[in-house]
């Protein structure tokens, strides 16, 4: 609460100026506890029209003090209600008015806040093994039943899908898009039957099962999530490939110390958890684990533009210890290990399409999610998905798929082999 009633109108005026500056296209109507309303923006095709209500003065002030963290926590706790539209449209409205592509930001942080975020990111980036396991458990050990509600039914892929048919995703299901992602990655691995594959951050086993089943690979999947490990083993048994896969609860750093080597390494959605300070170590360990003529494929969320810092909401509530890398710092770290980046692909809108599908399924499963957790958790989860969607549609987020080799003669000189392998895996009509 503010210290005096006299100061509150001034602070409200600051919030109104911020919204007036930030919303030019589409409209936002704000309703306040005292019954007053304010409207911002102009109706514009392609931009949503949203109405929100603050339930208390405190709700307004929390957002003013720290826009991203304050908005998320206020929505979680019911201090901000969306009365026309939904939270996805509200976040989209704010972010799409200042797209990253045109130099926009929702709000420029003060120098102090930027410095504080950088320091927090550096500290998180140390990410020693014991803390890394705790960070992973924070997000992934909240119950497999939650993830079953919104992930694709066959592979349970909690990472960006691949939508090759239509960038609007209209003629593909989430299940088809995740199947296409696995085929896309498998093709880049240039696998032969019987080759050994290390899957770093194997999740619920979808990638490992796919590679064992369709490429004839022998897979070692590692994770730091006990819930994921247990379900991955069950799913491998059900798929009939348990004899081809070893799932293990182990940190990649400890695995590298064993002196093992693999023909192929694949890592999907794990590099985001490594932390800036561990980038060099990650790639050095991958080099030790990869055979001289081996191939590695890393799929990661990334930043377009230079390095940044993890925002306070994500760091506190979603991925403690997580950091989204820029392509520049990723390649700089891998170059030190003398890994050759033989192919780099930027997936620009694929994750936005994926996130919208997850959001849609979570909203449809609202009662089930509340039964598993509570209303506050449900609000946290859909705010996280809405914010992530906006970051990929209008912010600086994308996905990178980087193929690495240790020797320049390892793969064919052109990319034709990828298309042939992908067609074989997905079928000629795909």
List keywords for this structure.
7-stranded mixed β-sheet; alpha/beta; 4-stranded mixed β-sheet; elongated; Rossmann fold; single chain; Nonspecific Lipid-transfer Protein, Chain A; 18 helices; 430 residues
The helix tally amounts to 18
Proportion of beta-strand residues: 15-25%
Number of folding domains? 2
Q: What number is the mean pLDDT?
A: 90
CATH superfamily of the largest domain: Vaccinia Virus protein VP39
Summarize the amount of helix as a percent range: 40-55%
Kindly provide the name of the CATH class of the largest domain: Alpha Beta
The main sheet comes to: 7 strands, mixed
Summing up helix and strand content along with how strands pair, one would put the structural category as: alpha/beta
- Mass-distribution shape: elongated
Strand sequence of the main sheet, in spatial order? 7-6-5-8-9-11-10
Question: From the coordinates shown, what is the CATH architecture of the largest domain?
Answer: 3-Layer(aba) Sandwich
């Amino acid at each position: 609460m503010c210290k005096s009633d006299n100061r509150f109108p001034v602070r409200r005026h600051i919030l109104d100026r911020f919204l007036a500056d930030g919303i030019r296209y589409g409209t936002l109507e704000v309703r306040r506890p005292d019954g007053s309303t304010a409207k911002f923006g102009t109706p514009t095709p392609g931009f949503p029209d949203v109405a929100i209500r603050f339930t208390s003065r405190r709700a307004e002030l929390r957002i003013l003090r720290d826009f991203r963290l304050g908005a998320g926590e206020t929505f979680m706790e019911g201090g901000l209600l969306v009365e026309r539209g939904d939270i996805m449209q509200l976040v989209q409205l704010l972010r799409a008015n200042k797209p990253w592509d045109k130099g926009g930001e929702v709000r420029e942080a003060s120098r102090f806040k930027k410095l504080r975020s950088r320091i927090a990111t550096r500290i998180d980036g140390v990410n020693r093994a014991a803390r890394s396991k705790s960070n992973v458990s924070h997000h992934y050990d909240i119950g497999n039943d939650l993830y079953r509600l919104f992930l694709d039914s066959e592979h349970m892929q909690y990472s960006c899908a691949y939508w090759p048919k239509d960038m609007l995703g209209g003629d593909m299901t989430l299940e088809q898009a995740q199947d296409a992602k696995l085929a896309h990655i498998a093709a880049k691995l240039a696998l032969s039957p019987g080759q050994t594959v290390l899957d770093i951050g194997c999740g619920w086993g979808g990638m490992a099962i796919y590679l064992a089943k369709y490429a004839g690979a022998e897979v070692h999947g590692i994770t730091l999530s006990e819930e994921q490990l247990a379900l991955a083993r069950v799913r491998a048994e059900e798929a009939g490939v348990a004899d081809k896969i070893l799932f293990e609860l182990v940190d990649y750093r400890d695995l590298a110390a064993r002196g093992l080597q693999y023909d192929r390494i694949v890592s999907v959605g794990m590099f985001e958890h490594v932390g800036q300070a561990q980038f060099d170590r990650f790639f050095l360990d991958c080099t030790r684990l990869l055979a001289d003529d081996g191939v590695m494929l890393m799929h990661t969320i990334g930043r377009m533009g230079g390095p940044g810092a993890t925002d306070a909401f994500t760091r506190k509530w979603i991925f403690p210890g997580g950091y989204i890398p820029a392509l520049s710092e990723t390649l700089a770290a891998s170059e030190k290990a003398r890994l050759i980046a033989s192919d780099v692909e930027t997936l620009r809108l694929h994750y936005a399409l994926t996130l919208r599908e997850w959001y849609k399924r979570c909203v449809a499963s609202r009662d089930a999610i509340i039964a598993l957790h509570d209303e506050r958790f449900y609000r946290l989860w859909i705010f996280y998905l809405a914010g992530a969607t906006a970051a990929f549609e209008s912010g600086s987020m994308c996905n990178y798929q980087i193929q690495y080799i240790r020797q320049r003669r390892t793969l064919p000189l052109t990319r034709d082999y990828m298309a042939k392998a992908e067609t074989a895996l997905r079928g000629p009509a795909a």
